[in-house]
Amino acid sequence: MPDLATALIAENFARDAGGVLHVGGLALTELTKEFGTPLFVYDAGTMRRTYRALREAVAGFAEVDFSVKANPNPAVIRVFGQEGAGAEIASGAEFDAALRAGVAAERILFAGPGKSAADLDRVIGGGIGEIHLENREEMARVAAAAERHGVTVRVALRINPGATAQGGAMRMGGKPSPFGFDEEEMEAAIDAVEAMPRLRLAGLHLFAGTQGLKAETLLGQWAYGLGLAARMAERIGRPLETIDLGGGLGIPYFSGDTALDLAAIRAGLPALIATLRANPLLAPARVVLEPGRYLAGPAGLYLARVLAVKESRGSRFVITDGGMHHHLAASGNLGQIVKRDFPLAAVVDAGSECTATAVVGPLCTPLDMLARAAPLPPLAEGDLVAVLQSGAYGLTASPTGFLSHPMPAELLVEGGEAELIRARGA
Fold this sequence. Notes:
- This protein is of the alpha/beta class.
- The chain is built from 11 helices and 24 strands.
C-alpha cells in the first residue's frame, strides 16, 4: 500500500517521467523559479472535483456552501462560488472577501461567538442573508443594529448539542462551550428571539464536531440536528427556512487515516430525507452543509526550499525556508494533542529509497518542525519539499508575524495557467 503522500499525489496531482511533481499541468519546479519559496499553490480543478462529488453525494438532502475561514483568499472563494456555493463567514473582513469573490450577500451567513457591533453594522448594512446567534448579548447587538438600519434581520440559533451528538477529531458540542446556546436552554433562547420585532427566527445551526472521517458519525449528527430543528419549528409554530448542519467533514492528514466514504454518506441519506418530508414544518427548509477543510484542503500544497541538511547526534535534519509561521497546522501546533506528520513529498523524486526525515523551518523555536519522520528521498540544499493537504487552515491560521519573515505568495492554478492571488510580502 502506498504511503499517504503518494496516494494523494496520485489522486489529485501528477509526476512526469523525471519524477517532477505537477499541479494542474504545471511543473512546481518552474513555478518556484518564477514565484519563489515558500509558496502556496492551489489547484482549482481539484477544488471543483471535490465540490461536485460532495454536492452529488448529498443531492436531494442538502446544499453545499463554503466555510470561508478555511481559506479566505477571494480567488479560492470565487472557485466555489462559481460552482454554486454560498459562503459561511466569521468576520466582517470575510464578508468583504466573499463579496469580492462574487458571492451574493443573501447567500452569505455569519457565524462565530464574538461578533462585534462594527462587523454587525457592516454585514447588516450590506444585506447579509442570515446571522447565527450564539449568546444573549449578541442577540441584543443584532437587534440594535437592525433598528439602526431600519430592517428586519433573518437569524438562526446556534445550538450546542447534548453529548449524544458529539464526534470528530475536535468536539464542538456535548460539553461546556463558548459556541452557541446549550441545548437545554434552546426553548428560552427561541422565546427571546421571538420577542424581538427586528429579528426573524429562520432556522437552526448545529456544529457538533470537526475533522470527521466516519460517515456514520456525520449521519448521526445530522439526524440529531433534524430532531432539534423539529423542536424549534414546533416552538415557533411555523416552518423553518434554514437548517444548517455545519461542516466537520474531514480529510486524511496522517498515516492510517481513511478518507470519508461519500458512498456511505449517500446510502445513509434516505432516512434523513424521509424525516424532512414527513414533517411539514421541516420540509420547506433549505438544509445546508458548510464544509471548508474538506473542499479546499486537498487542493493545496505548501512548497519550501531546502537551505541545509545536517546531522545532530545521530539524527538528520532538513532545514527549509518554510515553517510554522506560514503553516501552523503542519507543525502540529494548531490544536493537535499528539503531533503527527502531515503528508510530505519531494517535489522531484526519481524513485530513490526513502528514509525517515525530520523537516524543520527557519524559526528560532523547536516547535518549528514540519515533519518528524517523513518518508523522503535524500535531499540537499536547493531541493524542494511539498506539504500536501495544505489548502485549508494554512497561511491565515498561522503566526505570520513571528520573526518577521515575508509573507509567501499564493497561486491558483487552473487550465494550465497560474494566477498570482497573493503577491510575496503582501
